[in-house]
Amino acid sequence: MATTIQIKEDIKVVLNQMKIFDRETYNDVLERLIEDIQELNETTKKEIESALKEIENGKYITHEDLAEELGF
C-alpha cells in the first residue's frame, strides 16, 4: 500500500542526488538509507563491545602515557 508524505524541497533535492539511476523511486532510496543505518548500528555495537573488552583486559593507553610516548 502506498502513502503520501510531505518533505521539504531541499530534502527532495538530496534524495534525487542519492538516486543510483534516474527512475529509482524515493522509496528505494529510503530503503537503502534505512538498511545502511541498521548495518552501521550493528557494526557500531560490535565495535563498542570489542573496545569495552579491550579496556577490561587492560589493552589501552592513557592520554598521559601517550603524550609521554610522543614526547609532549
Structure write-up:
With 72 residues, the protein is mostly helical. It has one domain (9-70). 68% of the residues lie in helices and 0% in strands. It is built from three helices and no strands. The chain is elongated. The termini are far apart. The model has no long low-confidence stretch (mean pLDDT 94).
Which key terms come to mind for this protein?
about 70 residues; mainly alpha; 3 helices; about 70% helix
How can the largest sheet be summarized? none
Class by SSE composition:
mainly alpha
Helix count from the secondary structure assignment:
3
Query: Could you spell the SSE succession in H and E letters?
Result: HHH
Overall form: elongated
Cα-based radius of gyration, to the nearest Å: 22 Å
- Proportion of residues in helical segments: 55-70%
Distance between the termini: 62 Å
Taken together, the total number of domains comes to 1
Which stretches are low in confidence, meaning pLDDT under 50 for 5 or more residues running? Answer: none
Topology:
Layout: H1 9-18, H2 26-56, H3 63-70
Concise structural overview:
This protein is mainly alpha-helical and 72 residues long. It has helices spanning 9-18, 26-56, 63-70.
